Amino acid sequence: MPQAVFITGEATIEVKEVAKLSPGPGQVLVRVHAAGLNPADWKMAHMLWQVALDTIPGSDFAGTIEEIGSAVPDGVHSIGKRVAGGVYGYQRKFDNLPPLGAFSEYVVVDADLVWAIPDNMTYEVATTQTLAALTAAQILWQSLNAPTPEAPAKEPTPLLVWSAASGVGHWLLQFAHLSGLKVYATASQKHSERLKALGAVDVFDYRDPEAGKKIFAATKGSLTQIAVAETTQDDVVNIINAFGDNGGIFAACAPFLQMPNSTKPVEFVPSIVMTLYGEPLAPPFNIPALPEHRAAAAVFIKRIEKLVSEGKISTLPVRVFNGLESVWQGMEELRTGKVSGERIAFKIVA
Ligand SMILES: NC(=O)c1ccc[n+]([C@@H]2O[C@H](COP(=O)([O-])OP(=O)(O)OC[C@H]3O[C@@H](n4cnc5c(N)ncnc54)[C@H](OP(=O)(O)O)[C@@H]3O)[C@@H](O)[C@H]2O)c1
To answer: Locate the Enoyl reductase (ER) domain: which residues (predicted)?
Structure first.
């Protein structure tokens, strides 16, 4: 029997046997060669969302297609093809479906939600991309309705990417740069040169309480759009200080942030990447299925595949752990702040 990591209690995970899944119509079965770690994974394992109990954590996977379900159009995929993608499993227990998550030897996934891994990219690198890339795509192209690489900005409109050295921020910076935006960034200063090489006009330290005011000065009060990756509630006033006097849109993948009273009009647009999978979201989110988000996800995956295959995306360094048994160790590294400007992958197939 294949194995998977299960959340079996608060801050408790176990590797257990799990029934092998079969792909449904329009799906493929993927043998997972490497799984990628995201902050949501340790947050779920620590039961920040009670619903996570008895589910398999992990969204990001990379592997080979082992079986193709019915209704997948001929020629789209082939057995053995190297693909990466994301799954969203914890809703499934509410629908009485078998458990699914990336910290597992197999996943089933909709055939249009995987992207082909280029020959020059390892499974370990590929597996650390999808959730961050989809989150960035959602912030940029759903929340901010920003230009795209196919139809880039005609004017160099400024955008602030807060936390550009995070997984989500790294994609935000590159997506925005490729879409013709003039990107200002925040990150630890050690990442500054690397982020400038990816298109950031300037990089400010998010720990500097004056960062927002400095960005306001650098943009001459013209900033109306801010894309936020990692942040804390304590950063919010600093971030808002970067807006011009007319305020603007504060788009963040942090749904529980509170906006303070501000003299600048700020529209807070939170996003949750799981809505892209087209299923309803269980508590604490309570969001119905959004078919338009599911349709957007397929467009985003195609865009990711194209940009990666064209070599237009630079990936963060990856630290590799071995096996499902190492998942807890990786989660602890991330939870305790020992991951900076890098991503963590778990090698599943030796
Ligand atoms: N709502 C959603 O759907 C969704 C989806 C994906 C992620 N998220 C959330 O988005 C956040 C980022 O995820 P990720 O995968 O990009 O994380 P990540 O790659 O693990 O982020 C690590 C980076 O966070 C930066 N950081 C730490 N504290 C910060 C702060 N106060 N302000 C700015 N940057 C800070 C550090 O940057 P330096 O190295 O520069 O210090 C570090 O490199 C997480 O909170 C995650 O839970 C939400």
So the answer is: 9-350
